[in-house]
Amino acid sequence: MMDNKDFEVANPPTDSVSGLDFSTQADYLAVSSWDNQVRIYEVQPSGTTVPKASYAHEGPALCVTWSKDGTKVVSGGADKAGRMFDITTGQSTQVAQHDEPIKCAKFLDQGNVLATGSWDKTIKYWDLRSPTPIGTVQLPERCYAMDTKGPLLVAATAEKYVCVFDLNNPTAIFKQLTSPLKWQTRTVSCFTDSKGFAIGSIEGRVGIQYIDEKEASKNFSFKCHRDDSKNIYAVHDINFHPIHGTFSTAGGDGTFSFWDKDCKQRLKPFPKANGEITNTAFNRNGSIFAYAVNYDWSKGYKHSRPTQTPKLYLHAVRDDEIKPRTPKKR
User: Fold this and answer.
1) Start-end of the WD repeats (predicted)?
2) Residue 38, beta-bridge partner list
3) What single DSSP character describes residue 132?
4) What pLDDT was estimated at residue 132?
5) What integer pLDDT is reported at residue 328 of this predicted model?
6) Which of 251, 240, 252, 220 is nearest to 289 (CA)?
7) Residues 238/243/244/246 CA torsion (nearest 10 deg)
8) Sign of CA dihedral 69, 150, 161, 140
């Protein structure tokens, strides 16, 4: 049952959603999906949404990210291309190229540099004014998930490798580790203070990892997205709240929850949606939480239901749902 107060986005994608990202400047939501399209919606103060623009890849669009100034959207696709849409001109151009599909794209906090992570086992850095990458890094395996905050960039690959980068030296892997979780990585998200990251896997687990060895005692993992019948579901997305530093998880069980890593507790669970939740995003001030409900293909094409069309929802975030708990005095 959905939270009745959540707003449904009009004119959603026609196939499963692969990425959500809000502009850092205004309440514009970019959505990439398996129907080859990237769509941009304006979220009005009333909660209603207006489709503003869309552009296409030549294959499924697998990720989407906004430039820091809010004027451009970049997406990566199965067509091995990174494409940029300029909000001011309405034009889309190709700005990146890999030998295999581009699974991840993120603008770095410094400058107008774009990082793309691909199944060709590389990360490439792009200055959008140049057709050739300004840097390339060889990864140990295919890039499955990537996030960046301040000087920190974390890329998670196949075979459970995690590569940590200090963006002061972006073409060298600062630290390579193995995921603390036993199974395949689905998502990775950097802390708001850049001191570490959260990683989610297909086995309904999240790992909290600090970069500095001195803080290793704070590392821990926890179970989530499991049901009373002991069914285990993938953690598809993790997002940190931009103000409070608390975070969300969403999964194949059709639920999302808000958590506080410092107090190691769940702040609020939300009711089950009618379908799996594949992607989530907070807006720039954390007052809106967007989530995509659609088939996650975890059981293959035979279980896909033509009637289950993708839906996008917007949840108005209340402070009492997301604010950190006061640690107990000892």
Assistant:
1) 54-95, 95-136
2) 32, 55
3) S
4) 94
5) 58
6) 240
7) 0
8) positive
Listed in sequence order, the residues at least 6 apart from 309 whose beta carbon sits closer than 8 Å to its beta carbon are 12, 14, 294
Q: How far is CA 16 from the centre of its chain?
A: 15
Mean pLDDT over 113-117 rounds to 97
Distance, C-alpha 227 to centroid of its chain: 24
Structural tokens at position 192: 């708001």
Residue where the block lists tokens 């769940």: 266
Q: What's the order of all strands across the beta sheet hosting 288-293?
A: 7-8, 311-316, 288-293, 277-282
Q: Which residues contact 326 (CB under 8 A, 6 or more apart)?
A: none
* pLDDT of 250 strictly over 90: yes
Structure tokens at 241: 């709240």
Q: What is the maximal distance between C-alpha atoms in the chain?
A: 58
Q: Which among 86, 56, 83, 81 has a CA at the least distance from the CA of 69?
A: 86
Q: Outline where the chain has alpha helix (H).
A: 319-322
* CA-closest candidate to residue 163, choices 197, 133, 126, 194: 197
